């Protein structure tokens, strides 16, 4: 995306006003899309994400208690660790 077509944060937030406030709702301009990502360690499932979309141009947080799998999920997305199953795209490209 060129600098001339970049959205402001306010424009990105405005687009989200029409999105349903439910987990996994489709975003109008998702930069990251995650589907069916699972990571098991022995008999323990650390990550189990059915579907996640992150909107371009807005701040998005991943919250949860200690041991919920936040760091493991981040490690999967960055390639530091490998999932048992699942796929994700960034900027529309499979990673």
Describe how the helices and strands are arranged.
Elements: H1 9-16, E1 30-41, E2 44-55, H2 70-78, E3 85-90, E4 93-94
Antiparallel strand pairs: 1-2, 1-3, 3-4
Keywords for this structure?
single chain; 95 residues; alpha+beta; four-stranded antiparallel sheet; 4 strands; 34% strand
Q: What does this protein structure show overall?
A:
A 4-stranded antiparallel sheet has the order 2-1-3-4, with helices on one face. 18% of the residues lie in helices and 34% in strands. It is elongated. The protein is α+β, with helices and mostly antiparallel strands. 11% of the residues are buried. The two termini are 19 Å apart.
Round the mean pLDDT to the nearest integer and report it.
88
Q: Ends: how far apart?
A: 19 Å
Strand content: 25-35%
Rough shape? elongated
Q: Can you give the helix content as a percent range? A: 10-25%
Radius of gyration: 15 Å
- Largest sheet, spatial ordering of strands: 2-1-3-4
Give start-end ranges of low-pLDDT stretches. Answer: none
Give the helices and strands as they follow along the chain. Answer: HEEHEE
Total strands: the figure is: 4
Number of separate helices: 2
Query: What can be said about the biggest beta sheet?
Result: 4 strands, antiparallel
Structural class designation: alpha+beta
Question: What is the compact description of this entry?
Answer:
This protein is α+β, with helices and mostly antiparallel strands. Helices cover 18% and strands 34% of the residues.
């Amino acid at each position: 995306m060129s600098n001339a077509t970049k959205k402001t944060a306010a424009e990105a937030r405005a687009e989200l006003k029409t999105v349903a406030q439910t987990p996994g709702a489709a975003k109008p301009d998702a930069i990251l899309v995650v589907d069916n990502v699972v990571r098991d360690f022995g008999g323990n499932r650390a990550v189990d994400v059915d579907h996640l979309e992150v909107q371009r141009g807005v701040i998005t947080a991943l919250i949860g208690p200690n041991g919920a799998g936040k760091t493991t999920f981040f490690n999967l997305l960055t390639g530091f660790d490998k999932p048992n199953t699942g796929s994700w795209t960034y900027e529309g490209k499979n990673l």
